[in-house]
Amino acid sequence: MATMTSQSAGSQSSDSAGAASRSVLSLRGHELGGNSVLVKPVWHSSTPGRIAQAEEWGTASEGWKALSAHLARRPVSQSVAALLPGKSISLAWGMPVAEPVTSGSRVPTTSELCAALDRLEHGKSWKLGTNAVEVAIAWMTETARRHGTTAGLNGNAFGLECIAFARALPALSGLLPGDQWWQLVDRLFLVVDEASHGNELSVLERQWLAAELPLVLAYVLPELKPARELARRGGQELATALRTAVAADGMPSARQWDEVPALLATWARSRILAQSLKKSGWNQESQDRYANFARQVLRLSRRDGGLALSKTEGSRAGRDLLAAAFVSADRADRILATSLIGGQELPRNVSAKSLPPPAVNNEAAGVTVLRPNWSRNSERVTVTRAGSEVRIELACGRDVLWSGVWTCEVRRNGELLVPEADAEWDEVCWTSTEDADYLELEIALPENIRVQRQIVLAREDGFLFLADAVLGTEAASLEYRGALPLGAEVSFDPSTETREGYLVGRKPRGLAFPLALPEWKAQPSAGALEGTLEQTLELRAARRDARCLYAPLFIDLNSRRIFRPATWRQLTVAEDRQTLSPDVAVGYRVQVRDEQWLLYRSLGKRGNRTLLGHNLVSEFLVARFKTDGDIEPLVEIE
Questions:
Q1: Phi and psi at residue 13, in whole multiples of 5°?
Q2: Host H or E run for residue 326
Q3: What is the CA radius of gyration of the chain?
Q4: Local structure of 604: helix, strand or coil
């Protein structure tokens, strides 16, 4: 994550910093602990006369007494917190459970600081071992020491701390002496000015400091004319980010995945603020962009409110964030949010056609969601790719069966083939129909080897098909190992006599068939499907003197069907009455009770081939058998 460098911060002298501050607030500040000289603030015309007409506003002055009394009378209903739904601390929305801490020994952790300032904002008492004056002075001293720098989610959440202090400014006026209160205001305005020119800030840092912080200052200090003027500044920064930081359809990039919850949080809070302020620049384009992003995050969310592929579970704060994200949203989005967040199924009178498509793919962002419907209990497959890494999550109801990097190890003649540093998974095909969602990816390996990765989620038929095709040009000894990271509460329960096994969470969720391996364990095999001590589901396969290798995995996700009698067979594929080698083309039949499916993959040049009496010219086929013995394609790639 990029941050402003110490070199750029050091290039600013104290004089230039003071000039920037005076240009915003008409303040001239000195070192902390000394006296501060206040040049007359620029008051808005609505400010009470006893404040605006005073001569001084420092500690013990008549102007300060009038201002602090005026701010103290402001009801909690006018606070930023009152605008936001939920009972959790809104600055904790989207943040990881292990929140970052500040580095100063006298300064509380970020979570402690935000919690204490949140209490003040809600009209409650200060609740830290150190009094508010000492904390504020220590925080300003520490931030002055790292002047011009901000840190992101893995360091000091400086932006959140600034926002927390800004939101509590009215309440702090009753705890801090006037000089320290004005120094705090001065520091926050200066931070906004610096952030506006901080080209090395990450997207998230810039939104905290250059969008949300000025909007908060504009909302909590309407008495100051420069504060009101920050509304448009923050609104413009917010609109720019919504236009440039995410795709037009709102899909976030796989490369910024870890920041997605925090981005939604700052944009949800900022949107509500911008809509509450006059002249903030919030318009229909901003609303449309924001709505697209929020809808995509809803697609990417787990049932508990957490983000798919994240290491943290959902929480009350996460659910409050989603609720805030859809305040005043369109009807379709409100229905989805209320259902998925509120724990209820979709109303029966809501037509699926009136809702956004449940499945989506954005090639440029590197993100795909395979999903049959918007039901909270439906299967959900989330896939991201960035560089040579593919991450995948399968969730069924409340269970996350696996989540994390889908590894792929290929050895050729015993040598591990490692992708080049600049190798990337490229999208080959995406299609979504009434029958199935299908994604195909490809990456190049050394020795003229390619791996094509296939993912099929059958909507009505209720199964997931995963496969890696190792494609080479010359015969060699090929070994494959693929692993899926199982959820913490999920186990793989293998069958005693055959090579299939159950995926078990709170209850059995799926039955996995390694189609390229013999069904019965008594039959010899060069591969295996196993649960490992590393909590992964591992599929291994090997072939000698072969140009290609296919490693498919069929997972029946229909809970009403997975305990029924099941079997699978490897089929003979022929061309011109000649049986083809498995490194040229493969076919499989899967049967669960009276339901059957046919799967076919060409690993070489396509040809006119026969499989179970069916003529095929396609490269890939997934089909169901009809009652008359004919087949009905679910996915067919020609």
A1: -80, 165
A2: none
A3: 30
A4: coil
- φ, ψ of residue 214 to 5 degrees: the values are -65, -35
Q: Is 86 left (phi over 0), alpha (psi -120 to 50) or beta?
A: left
Q: pTM of this prediction?
A: 0.87
- The series of mean pLDDT values per 10 residues for the chain, 638 residues long, is 30 34 41 47 90 87 93 92 89 68 62 91 88 90 61 59 95 93 92 82 90 96 93 93 89 92 94 92 90 93 89 80 87 83 73 86 97 90 97 95 97 96 96 97 97 97 97 96 96 96 95 97 94 97 96 95 92 92 96 95 90 90 92 94
**Burial of 400: CB neighbours in 10 Å, binned 0-12, 13-18, 19+:** buried
Across the beta sheet with 360-362, the strand order is 360-362, 367-370, 379-386, 389-396, 399-405
- Is residue 28 classed as helix, strand or coil in its secondary structure? strand
Query: How many alpha carbons lie under 13 Å from residue 74 in its C-beta half-sphere?
Result: 26
Nearest to 635 by CA among 592, 589, 596, 601: 601
For residue 119, which of 89, 139, 96 has the smallest C-alpha distance? 89
Residue 487: name the closest of 404, 551, 602, 390 by CA: 404
From the CB of residue 203, how many other CB atoms can be counted at a distance below 10 Å?
21
